[in-house]
Amino acid sequence: MTKNYYITTPIYYVNDRPHIGHAYTSVACDVLARFKRLSGCNVKFLTGTDEHGQKIEKSAVLAGMTPQAMADANSGHFHDLTKLMNISNDDFIRTTEPRHIASAQALWKKMEQGGHIYLDSYKGWYSVRDEAYYQESELVDGKAPTGAEVEWVEEPSYFFKLSAFQDKLLAHYAANPSFIGPESRRNEVISFVKGGLKDLSISRTTFSWGIPVPGAPKHVMYVWLDALANYLSALGYPDENASDFKAFWPADLHMVGKDILRFHAVYWPAFLMAAGLPLPKRIFAHGWWTIEGEKISKSLGNAIAPADLVTEFGLDQTRWFLLREVPFGSDGNFSRERMVQVINSELANNIGNLVQRTLSMINKNCNGILPNGSVKDSPVGITGINFEEAQLFIENNEFDKYTNRVIKYASEANEYIDKQAPWALKKLGKLEEMGKVLYSLAESIRKIAIFIHPFMPESSSKILDQLAVPFDQRSFHHLSETFSLIPGTVLPPPQPVFPRFIEKTT
Ligand code: ME8
For tag attachment on the chain, is the N or C end more exposed, with fewer CB atoms within 10 Å? Predict the structure, then answer.
């Protein structure tokens, strides 16, 4: 039976344009979605934009726009980002869409019917930038622990009985060790919950840019309750018989940045428990990027537009670098110098060189016809990556380990080519031996191309095209010997795949 797999990115705030931090999360999810599709799963991959709340309303006022106009413009930029980065999302949800509004209100009603919501008034600190409430004791020098400004808020508000879920949450974390990753973040969440949970204010009355609370139109829903509901809205909730809801809920993975783990690993499961819905299987919090050592911020003006990277370095090169540079889960620093190094050493000099040397030798010395050989002779792949291992890395969100293995595989193939020196075999007239060497290299390249597909789909296809691999034989199932390259196949003329990046001198 085909396995269903549902993966989500956070939905991005529309008060600003996308930067590489957003591209990072979306590319990571894209790699996972593509990996799952290539493994034969039926995938639903959701992304979108978070458009309500005080933060958006305030930014719109500052920009002299209506919140809706700001949302439309910036949601468009996030939508463009999916195209730019070759993100294979199946849906793009906007929280201003009627399907979402209906779903968020239905979720509210479900929680209310269960007796988990009550009316009171909120008095305390709020950070508009974080869209979060803070206790007095959490403030550091009068600011939120994130460094964001806070303001004093006093207003009538509906509350969610979060305090009643403390034990249930702890029991869930204990029974499901992979519910939160990585481990260090899981521990942080557990100690936060153990520290005690207070009831949560889930409606606001001092502004109006939000989803009206059912039956209390003076209140708008707290933007995080509104936003988290997106993961259900896209599946057709509240229709629990909708085919997508039946197939894809609970989600397999909510991918988030570490900044928003608490909302996903504490509030969201409690909301779902209150509504009687199953909980997502996993929430993974990745690290935070800085740029040349500095926090990405509007005021520093250092945000790198993903389009600039793609234009200068190439799409697949950018995707590869983002996931390659730091162990997923850790913080990373974007350095242009490192990006050039990685592109040149791993893509141009390693994988690219391997493909280029092998295919041009087949082109020149074998008239472009794949020579005789057998996978049995294949020297590489012994310590190379295999599917089971790759799958494990993917399940654990260990992109660095996955890509390390691919690079190792390509390095071994390059060592083999140097050692066997097919050009020397040609000179000695040992054409059959030369053919065998080239065949086994081509077969290794085929495997490398399949393994890199989730990370660099266009380059993978370009390589597989040059090996004349049929379109319907490019998934993990086709790694096996049964689908190995057929000697005698006419190959198209070779094309460079990963050019060396040369710094422009002005
Ligand atoms: O938090 N490094 O939206 P958001 C790495 N709307 N990742 C980064 C990053 C950086 N410097 N900056 C942003 C929200 N991100 C809410 C989410 S979900 C129901 C609602 C990524 O626009 C990271 O994934 O502030 C982070 O969690 C997300 O962008 C936050 O985007």
Answer: C
The pLDDT averaged over each successive group of 10 residues in the chain (506 residues) is 94 94 97 98 98 96 97 97 98 98 98 98 95 94 94 96 98 98 97 96 96 97 98 98 98 97 98 98 96 76 90 97 94 94 98 97 96 72 74 95 94 93 94 94 95 98 98 95 94 96 82
Beta pairing, strands 151-160 & 200-201: antiparallel
pLDDT at 345: 97
What residue's CA is closest to ligand 1, atom 29? 22
Best CA proximity match to 54, nearest among 296, 267, 268, 221: 221
Q: How many CB atoms lie within 10 A of CB 181?
A: 20
Nearest CA to ligand 1 atom 13: 21
Residue 88 burial (10 A CB sphere; 0-12, 13-18, 19+): middle
49 Cβ below 6 A of ligand 1: no
pLDDT value of residue 298: 67
227 lines ligand 1 (CB under 6 A): yes
Regarding pTM above 0.90, the answer is yes
Model pLDDT, residue 397: 94
Alpha-carbon gap, residue 263 to 189, rounded angstroms: 10
pLDDT on residue 379: 57
DSSP string of 188-215? Answer: HHHHHHHT----EE-EE-S---SPEETT
Contacts of 56 (CB under 8 A, 6+ apart): 13, 14, 15, 67, 70, 71, 209
> For residues 18 and 75, is the Cβ–Cβ distance under 8 A?
no
Q: What confidence score (pLDDT) does residue 385 get?
A: 75
What pLDDT shows up at residue 192? Answer: 96
Closest C-alpha residue for ligand 1 atom 9: 21
CA angle 96-24-347, nearest 5°? 145
Residue 382's Cβ-side half-sphere holds a number of Cα atoms within 13 Å equal to: 9
Angle at 130 between CA 107 and CA 81, to 5 degrees: 80
* pLDDT for 299: 65
Q: Which residues of 247-279 are buried (b: 16+ CB within 10 A; e: fewer)?
A: ebbebbbbbbbbebbbbbbbbbbbbbbbbebeb
For residues 268 and 250, give the distance between their C-alpha atoms in angstroms, rounded to a whole number.
12
Domains and CATH numbers, the chain: 336-483 (1.10.730.10)
Angle between helices 399-420 and 431-452 (to 10 degrees): 170
Q: Is the CB of 254 under 6 A from ligand 1?
A: no
Residue 295, helix vs strand vs coil: strand
Q: What is the pLDDT of residue 141?
A: 95
**DSSP H helical ranges for 229-314:** 230-233, 243-248, 261-262, 268-274, 306-313
